[in-house]
Amino acid sequence: MHRSNTISTQPSVTNLSEKMPSAPAKAIACLRIPNFQWQVEVARKPELHDRSAIVAGKALDLSEELTNLAAGSNQRSGSSSRPGSSSDSLSARVVLAASPDLTDVMPGMSLMEATSRHKGALLIEADTPLYALVFDEIIENLERLVPDIEAAAPGLAYVGIWGLEGLYGDDAHVVRLLASAVDSFDLRIGVGDNKWLAYAASLLSLTNSGRKVTGEPARFLDRFPVDSLPVPYSLVKRLHAFGLTTMGHIADITRGPMEAQFGQAGGTAWDLANGIDDRPLIPKRSVLGVSEHLDFPDPTASMATIVPAIESLLGRAYGRSQLSRRFARQANIQSQVFQHAPWTMRVAFKDPVGNKNQALFAIKSKLDMAVIPGPLEDMRLTLSGITGEAGRKESMWKDVKRDNDLQETISQLRTRLRIAPPIYQVRELEPWSRIPERRYALVQISAGSNDPPPDRGS
Fold first, then answer.
1. Binning pLDDT at 50, 70 and 90, where does residue 32 land?
2. Is the per-residue pLDDT at 258 higher than 50?
């Protein structure tokens, strides 16, 4: 995107390198790492720095992660009809990031369109687990400094900076503090009264510095290109087709026609073009986990090397203070594969595991059935679902024991499936009712619920 040619710094945007008045009561800072996936790849392989390259992955609507729009859920519910939902073809994959020289390649663009524009560009298969891991480490560094952080997407976070002036000083000091926590990345910071204005301000920010929206939002946004909107790339193309190339063009139209022509996403685009964004800051919930990493001297696919490596990582993980007298429910193994896409394996333990040998036995059982696509260059093992459960107490009452066993099974299924298991009970509602549908109902069982045990007749 040619933002540098189309956006001018207006009086309503202030450079935070100078001393500024304290932030408003609910000011939000946006921390944006442009082309985050590309920056991670360059940090891992410096020789890519001077190459034209595209980081590609399966279809993923990053705009929904940026905005958390209510409309996004409706779009996701129909995602099966979108290209790429069930195919690994070239047309099913999209651009996640690109080298800075490819200015006309946008995140969300189909890989087919991007490669047709730049036939000689190097294609890099997205290493999603690595990007998530690197960004989690950045968030952990920030959590040591500020309490309210929302990790919206890889390379994008929002921070509540209200009340921080008492600890760190004015906005300029807060920006410098946040920038110091994100080492070795090109970080852009924006400050505004809501998430969208903070994000838009970050688009004008320079490396490791900040910009703040202090004037009328509509005036500030007037000349922003619609390419800046965190909406699906397909909508951006349609807006261009209608001659709507700037935020000002959208703001000049009433909301009704925008929704009539473009649906809910059109209404959202109109809100953003007018600086309206009511989304609350949703702080990230810390998930306790322990991770260990090693590099193989040479790429290997030999189990004689891989199994001892896993054993070594497990020994180091269970030796950490975070796992002292504690147990893990799940292990994740991630590896870079020579000349292949990254390989991952997830092992959900039947019962929480509190030592290296039990975990290794479960991992080896699944490893025997796994297909490793090629020689592994490294390995990262992460133990998650940490619990203080040291054993199981069996009840002498059969009904209570049955319910405890059921709850434990549901908990294990939730860990394996990553969703609430579709397990239901038949519950009495109005057994005296003359309408059959009102007599009983199916109620989903959730692990850890405090619902009373079902009647014997159910």
1. very high
2. yes
**Cα four-point dihedral sign 300, 302, 305, 306:** positive
Amino acid letter for position 323 = L
Distance CA 340, CA 115 (A): 20
User: Whole-angstrom Cα distance, residue 66 to residue 190?
Assistant: 15
Instruction: Give the residue from 129, 116, 104, 77 showing the smallest Cα distance to 233.
Output: 104
The two structure tokens encoding residue 99: 């080298």
pLDDT tens sequence across 42-60: 988 888 888 999 998 875 4
Tokens of 246: 């700037």
Tell me the Ramachandran region of residue 355: left when phi exceeds 0, alpha when psi lies from -120 to 50, beta otherwise.
beta
Distance CA(364)–CA(359), nearest Å, equals 9
pTM for the full predicted model? 0.60
Alpha carbon distances (Å) from 358 to 166, 170, 314, 331, 405:
49, 52, 10, 12, 21
- Residue 192 burial (CB count, 10 A): 27
pLDDT of residue 446: 60
Quickly list DSSP for 246-277.
Answer: BHHHHHTS-HHHHHHHHTHHHHHHHHHHTT--
Class of domain 1-285: alpha beta
pLDDT for 175 beyond 70: yes
Domain residue limits, the chain: 1-285, 289-384, 409-444
pLDDT digits (tens, 9 = 90+) for 262-271: 988 899 999 9
Convert 194-232 to b/e letters by CB count within 10 Å (16 or more is b): bbbbbbbbbbbbeebbbbbbbeebeebbbebbbbbbbbb
- Residue 416, pLDDT > 80, answer no
pLDDT tens per residue across span 177-226? 888 888 788 999 998 889 999 999 999 888 888 888 877 888 889 889 99
Beta strands (DSSP E) in 28-100 are: 28-32, 53-58, 93-98
Crossing angle (nearest 10°) for helices 264-273 and 70-77: 150
Whole-angstrom Cα distance, residue 374 to residue 449?
A: 44
DSSP 228: G
| Partners of 441 in beta bridges | 427
Q: Compute φ and ψ for 342, nearest 5 degrees.
A: -60, 150
CATH domain 289-384 topology: Dna Ligase; domain 1 (3.30.1490)
